[in-house]
Amino acid sequence: MRGQLSDPGETRTSPNGYHYTKTSKGWRMTHHIMMEQHIGRPIKLEERVVFKDKDRTNLEVDNLELQVKGRSTAARELARLEARRDELEARITELREKLET
């Protein structure tokens, strides 16, 4: 229930369908925990876990696939950050000009 403390091992399903498990370090996606147990190591930053059948409720390990994030993901992130930087620089210029008057 919302507002109550949860013990490690407790699980919840979010409105977007992802299943979360409480760990000693906080809430984690259950399918990530399952994949880490399956492969015997933590998931790397450049990796992701996907549901083969696209069903987020199907938490069978055979339905999970470890993938390396593609370069297109990095390219999209770079483009997003550069656009945000440009927006911030424009706003800084605007504020400086306003302060000078």
**Largest sheet data:** 3 strands, antiparallel
Number of strands: 5
- Please count the helical segments: 2
Secondary-structure element order, as H and E?
EEEHEEH
Approximately what portion of the residues adopt beta-strand conformation? 15-25%
Structural shape: elongated
Which radius of gyration do the C-alpha atoms yield? Answer: 20 Å
Uncertain segments of ≥5 residues (pLDDT<50)? Answer: none
Ends distance: 54 Å
Read across the widest sheet, the strand sequence of neighbours is 1-2-3
Helix fraction bin:
25-40%
**Content-based structural category:** alpha+beta
State the gist of this model.
This protein has about 100 residues and is α+β, with helices and mostly antiparallel strands. It is about 40% helix and about 20% strand. The protein has a 3-stranded antiparallel beta sheet.
Question: What does this 3D model show about the protein?
Answer:
The chain has 101 residues and is an alpha+beta fold. The chain folds into two domains: 1-66, no CATH class; 70-101. The protein is built from two helices and five strands; from the N terminus they run E-E-E-H-E-E-H. The protein has helices spanning 30-39, 71-100; strands at 11-13, 19-23, 26-29, 47-51, 64-68. The strands form two sheets. The chain has a three-stranded antiparallel β-sheet. Strands 4-5 form a two-stranded antiparallel sheet. A hairpin with a 5-residue loop joins strand 1 (11-13) and strand 2. The chain starts with 10 loop residues before the first strand and ends with a helix.
